[in-house]
Amino acid sequence: MAVTTSKLIEWKQQKRAIVTLTAWDYPIARLLDRAGIDIILVGDSLAMTALGYPTTLPITLEAMIHHAAAVSRGVKQALVVCDLPFLSYQESVSQAINSAGRMLKEAGVQGVKLEGGYPAMIETISRLTEIGIPVMGHIGLTPQSVHRLGYRQQGKTPSDAQRLIEEALALEKAGVFALVLEHIPANLAATITDKLTIPTIGIGAGEDCDGQVLVTADILGLTEKAPPFAKVYANLSETITKAVVEFAKDVRGNE
Ligand code: KIV
Ligand code: NA
């Protein structure tokens, strides 16, 4: 049975952890799907991990659609969600509807993720969910705001923690089907998780979220520097280097 957004809420109630990973192309998506990953996120982190940009800001909607379409072609079971990239949804509600709509129509994804829980974003997300576009929220450290926030942990002061709790509740009310909590204190993530009916998916937010997400390139050892909260499960950099050095040796022989 393919994963649906309503399944996710059931899983939260049953305390069945929701496993999420990012993908950026067809072969990675196919492997994650066959391994039984629940949500495959075409995260705009691919701008950094797959395309070599210094932040997520430069990637365009066209480029994200291109990657999301490839991921969708590789997935049969998982729920495929794609990030809307920086400035493809913040300008106006109609810009967001257009970008999200293109993602569903042209890339074949089942949902979109938008960063932020401030009032204008709540309004945008309400409109998207109203017209039937499934939306995943994302608060805490929001990398599209890196020039304002840096990559620092969020929600550390009582007032910032309170703001994040209120944003989470507003996002649930706006109709998001799940909420990513990035790099916030574990006790704050636990509080938010408790208050919501929809599942929380944590990244650097402790163990008490309803699910966890990591950047696949980080856990496979493909990035130069993974964040401290990303456990590295394989060293593909080493595996690939060994393989290509071997190939080079074979081609060059013993000259
Ligand atoms: O872009 C991304 O990979 C993400 C996840 C880490 C949540 O937004
Ligand atoms: Na992202």
Structure description:
The chain is of the alpha/beta class and 255 residues long. It has a single domain, classed as Phosphoenolpyruvate-binding domains (TIM Barrel). The chain contains 11 helices and 8 strands. An 8-stranded parallel beta barrel has the order 1-2-3-4-5-6-7-8, surrounded by 7 helices. The termini are far apart. Bound molecules: 3-methyl-2-oxobutanoic acid and sodium ion (NA). The site of sodium ion (NA) has 6 residues, from loops. Its EC number is 2.1.2.11. One of its GO terms (molecular function) is 3-methyl-2-oxobutanoate hydroxymethyltransferase activity. Pathway: Cofactor biosynthesis; (R)-pantothenate biosynthesis; (R)-pantoate from 3-methyl-2-oxobutanoate: step 1/2. It is an enzyme of class 2 (transferase). Homodecamer; pentamer of dimers.
**Could you say which structural class the secondary elements and strand pairing correspond to?**
alpha/beta
Read across the widest sheet, the strand sequence of neighbours is 1-2-3-4-5-6-7-8
Strand content: 5-15%
Q: What is the total tally of β strands?
A: 8
Low-pLDDT segments, ≥5 res: none
Rg (CA only): 18 Å
Give the SSE order as H and E letters. Answer: HEHEHHEHEHEHHEHEEHH
Number of spatially distinct domains? 1
Query: What value does the average pLDDT take?
Result: 97
CATH topology group: TIM Barrel
